[in-house]
Amino acid sequence: MANRLGGETPIIKYGSELTFESMSTVSATAPINQGEIFKIDGTATDGTAYKLAECAAGDNPAEVTMVMALHRCQDPNQLVGGKLLNGSEVQVRRLKYDGAAPSLGNSIEAAAGNVRKVTGIAYAKGAGRVMAVNTATTEVEVLI
Question: Where are the domains of the chain?
């Protein structure tokens, strides 16, 4: 019998790993299990979008940023390690913005008034995703 060719890429060999807040609905009876998929969504008073949410039917990586949980989580206050499943988003970068602060979930482009800074635009696949906004320093953290 021949050895099987192909197969899944080992989890450590692809994608970026980030830490996310779990959902408020997580519990011992409704845990996040290793290998399950979620999406990055939601905002809170801390001004970040590093939060997991349940995927909805029809969600796909061309429209939402999907994450695979790296471990089990039973506590809504516990952080969850996640592996990004979208191929084009590989790192988080802190960038200066010009004009009005981009909104969480926006994508970015070069600013019209100062092309060395960014401005927010509606989410577009491959154009980054704003994950945090710091209005004091006029910087955003962008998953690109």
Answer: 16-87, 92-143
Predicted pLDDT of residue 13: 61
Contact in structure between 127 and 107 (CB atoms under 8 Å): yes
Q: What is the DSSP string of 42-95?
A: ---TT-B--BEE---TT--TTTS-EEEESS-B--TTSEEEEEE--TT---EEEE
Angle (CA) 60-37-49 rounded to 5° is 80
**51-105 residue pLDDT tens:** 999 999 998 887 888 999 999 999 999 999 999 887 677 789 999 999 999 999 9
| End-to-end Cα spacing for the chain | 44
pTM as predicted: 0.81
Q: How far apart are CA 92 and CA 46, in angstroms?
A: 18
Gap between the Cα atoms of 23 and 76, Å rounded: 6
